[in-house]
């Protein structure tokens, strides 16, 4: 007689988005998925313990973050095989977006387990929508690389036509704003979005030059998303000649404007790097 096949109970992996600053953004589905989980894998177990406590839940927590995610894979797959339902959360927002989550989701799916992503806040999308810039096509660039390669990385995006979205840390904001002005020209529109969904949410809309000047004066604090207009027709337009630039610069300098301010104004007018126009001013002074 043929032996009856025992259908093994198998667990499910759910990537659960969580609020990026406002606990009222928690959804019923997020709550239900966390409540149904046998285990919660979390970036920072202490931080996530507080979120679970807010929901009145007490769950076994397993730390799962960038530097241990590869090592945890086997363990999590074994738990799924044992029939455990796992909810994976990051410190804030959507797991997998500049946070761990994608690799274990793929590994679990490929191993035949059921996987799902429970939607919720994502700082990039929140900022994009609030920026007022075109949303039809956009490119999310995450965090910019650090050090020397950062400038090169931005230069490669100079002709990108889609709206660009970057995450940035407060201690790098000033340097990044200066580089944006350098590479994309001061005239491009952008939005600096700060502390989204939180009590002190702020969205500043203006040109790169205007907002770079604001943040040279103000101490950057909190969390930031930068949204930058893509390269439009004007940005693709053939370059204005050096003689014309010098003539216009000279007019401003003769009118009493300071060298740097004049360079900024001309650069914004033609969407040029400030440094290039500033250098022309030095040439003018020598002539
Ligand atoms: N997974 C998250 C998401 O879905 O947005 C992103 C995590 S990433 C490690 C953290 C970065 O996201 C921060 O440095 C900041 O650039 C951005 N961010 C997160 N929360 C934010 C908020 N409330 N306001 C502005 N930016 C935020």
Provide the descriptors you would attach to this structure in a database record:
five-stranded mixed β-sheet, alpha/beta, elongated, 10 strands, cytoplasm, 287 residues, 42% helix, binds S-adenosylmethionine, single chain, 3 domains, Methyltransferase, Cobalt-precorrin-4 Transmethylase, Domain 2
* H/E element sequence: EHEHEHEHEHEHEHEEHEHHHH
Structural class: alpha/beta
Helix content: 40-55%
- Overall tally of structural domains: 3
Shape, per Cα inertia axes? elongated
Query: Helix count?
Result: 12
What is the percentage of strand-forming residues? 15-25%
Multimerization status: single chain
Question: Unreliable runs, pLDDT <50, ≥5 residues?
Answer: none
Query: Between the first and last Cα atoms, what is the distance in angstroms?
Result: 102 Å
Mean pLDDT: 93
Provide the list of bound ligands, each named once: S-adenosylmethionine
Name of the level-1 CATH class of the largest domain: Alpha Beta
CATH architectural name of the largest domain: 2-Layer Sandwich
Alpha-carbon Rg, integer: 25 Å
CATH superfamily of the largest domain: Tetrapyrrole methylase, C-terminal domain
Number of strands: 10
Major β-sheet, in short? Answer: 5 strands, parallel
Major sheet: order of its strands? 3-2-4-1-5
| CATH topology description of the largest domain | Methyltransferase, Cobalt-precorrin-4 Transmethylase, Domain 2
